[in-house]
Please model this.
Amino acid sequence: AEKDALAGVLWEVTAAWEVPLMVSKAFGSLSFLHSAAETMTEQARLGKETFIYYFGDHDPSGVRIDQQIQKRLREFAPAAEIHFERVAVTPEQIVEMNLPSGPTKTKGTHAKGFDGDSTEVDAIPPAILRDICERCITQHVDQDTYDQLRIAEQSEREALTAFLDSRRQY
Model:
């Protein structure tokens, strides 16, 4: 995520799935990116791919942040197979959700080449952001295995409850 404010919105989803949530705070410091790359390199050693779903503003800096982060992570973790996707804010979401936009600042190093108005990721309602996040995660989950795990957990809960209830009777 581009900013801390998103962490409060997305954390409940990522925490439920035990998926790391990383906030870059704009372009991300080199130490932040290096630490993330180390994690990705370790996952690559275990034969795992890395999937990054980026939530950021649609403005001159916001669209460059994900490009820069992606570039640096690939430099710092060349052995990792990294799949990187911007999932919010996209030009399609701006149109589909009729998101509020404002004039783009034309000054600054990132403004050159940016076309159109700017839209903050905060313009997407929190429930929709959480839904996007949930879909990003669950597409990697084997649903049959997950369903079996949930049934087993429910059975274990029921057995523990029955056991505790029987102990209370004495």
